[in-house]
Hints:
The chain is mainly beta.
Amino acid sequence: MKHTLLTTVFFIGTIALQAQTCPGCSIDYSYTSPGLYPEILPPATAGEYYEVDLTFLLQEDTTVEVLGSDVTFAFLNYHILEPIGLPYGIHVTSNLGDFPVDYDPADGLFGCARVCGTPLVAGSYTITVPLIATLEDPAGDNPAEYELSLEVLPPSATDGGIVASTTFGCSPLTVDLSTGHPSDGAGGFSYTWDFGDGTYSILEDPVSVTLTADGTEPVEYVVTHTVTIDTIGYNLDYVTVLSTGCDDCAFFGCTGLFAEENPDIYLYFPELGITTDYYLDTNPPVTFSLNTALDPAATYNMQVKDDDDGGFGADDNCGNLMFSGDDVGVFTYDIGSSDVEISISHPIIFYTYTDTIVVYPVPSIPELTISGETELCEGDSVLLSTTPDPTVTYQWLQDGDPIPSAFDADFYAMETGTYALQATATGGCTAISESVDVVVYELPFPPFVSIIGNTLQTSSDYPIQWYYNGDPIPGANDSIYEPAIEGIYQAAAINGPCISFSSEIDFVFQSVLDLDPFQLTIAPNPVDDMLFLSGNTAVAGTMTIQIINATGQVIRSKTLSVGSVFSLQLPMDEIPSGYYRLIMRSAEQQGSYPFLRQ
Length: 598
């Protein structure tokens, strides 16, 4: 039976592209010449949403030559078909709805369409908008088409296709990398990685890569990652019958005066079970939009037919074509009495991403020079130093913490601690020297030595070493020492390397009877302002009295004549508080007496 002109093409099979409409276009009434505007669309970017409005201005009439005369025919209808050659993911909707649509010039010559969607495959596209323009009889239906250009740019190279654990760091830098387009176990995904260091991978998610920087300058590694997605399948997009030898003329031939003499072209695909609607009384070129999934391993047949329903016999066969489901591309074939153009697509999505990873060099480990001893007394210091490197900055550390303002290549350590030098290069990369332990000892207070009979006595919080005539006495380390011979003695308080000496003591043996030769009485003791002395001696004569402080220094000395019985007063006003010893000497005798000044 006869079908209505160009009703919907049968859609058999499944493709990944889901139906989508783009309503809401706006007409730009500024155009004055018939046409489709703009002819060159603004560029799109793969993977990013795209939207643009088109305006078309239809032609009201046209003048053609008929039998040698110009005849003007009015356009009665524009039947606009679904655009072909669209990038995968892009759709077009007119202001009257989805294509195909009919525009009646009597209702207005302006129309619009919105192009929208997310293109997935980059490239240069020529979009063809086929239409049938119906003129007044006898001109009838006439095919025409408009073309648009659309450039789909590659996706941005910095939109998350490379997921890196870090993009900068110190050498050697280990970076974990993963793709921003995971397959989630699905087939059809393939991956390549170029790490920029001469190594590669085809894994979806390489475990890690270690990058290095030698010398003193940072190294930039450009990581390139390509994702290939082959999951969409094969699709028969459209067939255009460019020309045909078929017609519906009578036995005696064509007059060219009647539209009914033109063929009623349609297509038949037996393996797909598709018979398209026909173009009524329309000469080629005519386009059939198919959008049908193909099996790449299958072979298909296509017949170009001229519908003769109600005419003379069966439909005319205008040409046969055998093609494979994987014949991807746009090809033109001469098939018998017809020429056809067939488009089969197999969109493969490519994403290429780059990311730059900067690896900073690590400076050389500073080598320390130690000038001096690392065990020292308070107030002393040891010099720690390194050979300066102008490409780094320095920071001295004490017990792991930065020392304020210690930024030079030299440092004098004066406190107990563990010292190290940290060198910092470009990018904040550091190297730390071996540590140096410095021990600072407290300097002991000089010990005070008392002569008690024929013994020397002292006390200290630190170990004691006795000396005789400037030499240490082996084994003499107690607070009490009994000299074996007369001479010059000293006591030393020792704390590590730190030694403090007492005053020198000129030791002379005393007999038991001479322990207190002057029978001296000191009062009061402790004393405040005045010290009173009283005693007696065997014979009158000259006497020397000395006051010695705790460090062995003589702070007051007085020589005077006394009788065999004597009394003396010694003012204490210029003597500081503390422990003292009073030494009294005559020509034949000597006595030592402690007292405390308050």
